[in-house]
């Protein structure tokens, strides 16, 4: 893996941990962070041996990501802002199209681009100190990395409008009640929780997990009959994998399955 300046990347037992590492700026997303995160998720997608799960978090005790970098944005022209927004969207697509699940471990502020980044992940565990929000309207701006779209898909249009129009941050428990996060855990236990779930997913057949991820993501916005067709195609393709034969035979032999990703 290449060296990065604004993020750190560790891989152990097929589980990658990607950490945005600008704690003095509350891990704000500037162009460099966006480029490095995108490069890291592309590299993880191509890694051999295969990455089974990634955990995305922020350095320090205070923030996951406190938004796009306001000082960098303040000087952008409209054309430069389009490039910046496009690069945030590209990162989201790379995370969403990775062949492994990405778990957001939200350890503090997830505001603006931070909330948008977490919503690109498959699911979110939040520390009880976390706060979520889309405060862009306080800056004369609007969400630019997918917040106007992914938030309503997660929590419904009415609640998303309230959060986007008021800019108010919400505590982790409220985010849980809205269905934005999967679970809230005590701050000190956040990474243990994320790793436990990552290990459980990493023990399953990776091609099956990759197919579940692809079909659930692509099917969500599609017509139901098209989405079910996607499912049937992906389901049947798994019958050509060694892992499917291994999993079904192991069940019948009452032994644990040994999945190889083939
Ligand atoms: N972009 C750039 N820098 C940011 C940032 C952002 N989104 N969020 C925080 N920082 C920087 C601060 O400027 C400060 O840097 P400095 O020490 O060099 O002055 C440092 O991170 C610490 O932030 P600070 O504001 O002092 O911490 P706080 O605990 O008082 O407040 C927040 C925390 C999250 C409430 C506050 O930083 C904030 O409102 N940030 C912006 C959130 C936002 O609007 N995000 C959406 C952007 S589109």
Description:
This protein has helices at 31-46, 70-73, 78-97, 113-119, 147-155, 157-166, 172-178, 190-202, 206-220, 224-237, 242-252; strands at residues 7-12, 15-20, 53-58, 63-65, 102-106, 109-111, 123-127, 131-133, 170-171, 183-185. With 262 residues, it is of the alpha/beta class. It has a six-stranded mixed sheet, with helices on both faces. A four-stranded mixed sheet has the order 4-6-8-9. α1 (31-46) packs parallel to α3 (78-97). The mean pLDDT is 97. Coenzyme A (COA) binds next to α2 and β6.
Bound molecules: coenzyme A
Shape verdict:
globular
Tally of strands: 10
End-to-end distance: 23 Å
List keywords for this structure.
four-stranded mixed sheet, 11 helices, alpha/beta, 262 residues, 10 strands, six-stranded mixed sheet, globular, 16% strand, binds coenzyme A
